[in-house]
Amino acid sequence: MINYQIICPLCSSNSTTKIETINREQIIYLYKKDFGIDVSYLLKNADLDYYECSSCKLRFFYPLIVGDEKFYNALQRVCDWYYMDTKEEYIYVKNYIKPDDKVLEVGCGKGYFFKHISTKTKYYIGLELNKKAKETAESNGIKVENITVEDYSKKYPETFDVVVSFQVLEHVSDPKGFIEAKIKLLKKGGLLIIAVPSEDSFIRYAANVTLNLPPHHVTRWSDETLKKIAEIYNLKMIDLYHEKVQEGHKVWFITTVLNSLFIPPHRLIDLSLKWKLINKFSEKLARLIKEKLKEELLPNGHTVVCIYKKDLVL
Q: Residue 49 in contact with residue 64, Cβ under 8 Å?
């Protein structure tokens, strides 16, 4: 049904549809089981509703409850892969960046993307709110500011040739303000680059994906929504790139496909015994057949990259 009270956090439309309600206790259980992290202090006493905007097709949780520094520090302690030193999106995006481009990376983590580009150190700046990640980046000679992009944009409007963020947009509570600040920082003709988990991939149909739930991910982005960004902000979309299913995600992909054959329709969280048994069987079967999956048959993988140009005439 259409809900006229909940406003889309991207396009501000009040025409939003509630897809389902997510039980608070189930989210707390998944984070405790998978990572040993207690998120009850963030979720307070409320269940979360999951919505889709009929205008821009953004999917989002309400209320938009995001993780704090305590939460992300805890994730880093248990996930040594949380800040990866190389990603396919880094390799793809580097082709759009010239050595003399002034580059701002929003949510730069430990600064690994900088190692992939030819930009000189003096032309690169990272923004990172996680102090431990910032310290690691700075120990490698990378300049990092501990400030929000919204505040930074007030100081340095139209300063950068490229503003990029990898796997950040889906974490923020105000995507509209976040995108507007990044655009404000760009010179006219500059490039806005966004990489996010793709709702046009298998992950849309995967249940019990803890890190694709609040307080980690609070919005979900399809190609249609990414294209809508260009319309909303008068940008020119010059590229939209989907990586294929990566090696480390093959078992996850096959398991998700097999599960969907037995447990339609898709739900974000399913803690039933039936799901557990089917998922266990699917995962074992996926490990047996993953090597037989031909690369040319692989569909869209986890990440989509979208590249926009700021209009010269605004």
A: no
* Annotated domain spans of the chain: 2-73, 83-249+295-310, 250-292
CA distances from 1 to 50, 128, 224, 232, 268 (A): 13, 39, 21, 25, 19
* Residue 238 Cα distances to 178, 300, 312, angstroms: 20, 19, 14
CA distance 312 to 14: 31
First to last CA, the chain: 37
3-state secondary structure the chain: CEECCCCCCCCCCCCEEEEEEECHHHHHHHHHHHHCCCCHHHHCCCCEEEEEECCCCCEEEECCCCCCHHHHHHHHHHCCCCCCCCCHHHHHHHHHCCCCCCEEEECCCCCHHHHHCCCCHHHEEEECCCHHHHHHHHHCCCCEECCCHHHHHHHCCCCEEEEEEECCHHHCCCHHHHHHHHHHHEEEEEEEEEEEEECCCHHHHCCCCHHHCCCCCCEEECHHHHHHHHHHHCEEEEEEEEEECCHHHHHHHHHHHHHHHHCCCCCCCCCCHHHHHHHHHHHHHHHHHHHHCCHHHCCEEEEEEEEEEECCCC
pLDDT in tens, the chain (314 residues): 455 589 999 999 999 999 999 999 999 999 999 999 999 999 987 899 999 999 999 999 999 999 998 999 999 889 888 777 889 999 999 999 999 999 999 999 888 999 999 888 889 999 998 888 888 888 888 899 999 999 999 999 999 999 999 999 999 999 999 999 999 999 999 999 999 999 999 999 999 999 999 999 999 999 999 999 999 999 999 999 999 999 999 999 999 999 999 887 789 999 999 999 999 999 999 999 988 877 777 899 999 999 999 986 54
The correct answer on CATH 3.40.50.150 for the domain covering 83-249+295-310 is: yes
